[in-house]
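Q: I'm writing up a methods section and want to include an example of the input and output format. Could you take the sequence below and give the corresponding predicted structure tokens, formatted cleanly so I can copy it straight into the document?
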Amino acid sequence: MESKRQSFYIYFLMLLSIMVIFLTPFGYHIDLGPGPSSIIAMLWEFPSYPETHPPFFVLRYFIEFYIFRFVILFAIIRFLQGKFSRKWLIILAVIGELIPLIISIPASLILNSQGENLSPIVISIPILLLYIILTTQIFLKRKKKLKNFIEP
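A: Here is the clean output for your methods example:
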């Protein structure tokens, strides 16, 4: 009975992790040109203007920021399976939050012939890092509680 509850809990956290990675905002896009600044997530952008950007435009435009988020998703799944440590998951989350900053520093300095940035400038919003810290803390406490329940 407890193993079914434990596996349900793990699957719930995996689904929640996928939703957090895809739906929560990860950065604030600063447009130094005539365009608007916006809050961006993997599947949406606010404000988005349908007449200027097709749906899911951000999937193509901000791809360099997403790659490491998929690495973090894989690490979360491995952590929930017990094959990855909490310490390394948090280190990966910190690196994932620094990626937009690392990419944006040179992007703010390199301009094309029209005077626009070659790469978007994005300031990180650490929602994923906070989620990982809370999830690992709660998961470890629940795992210890379950271990104490099974092994008196």
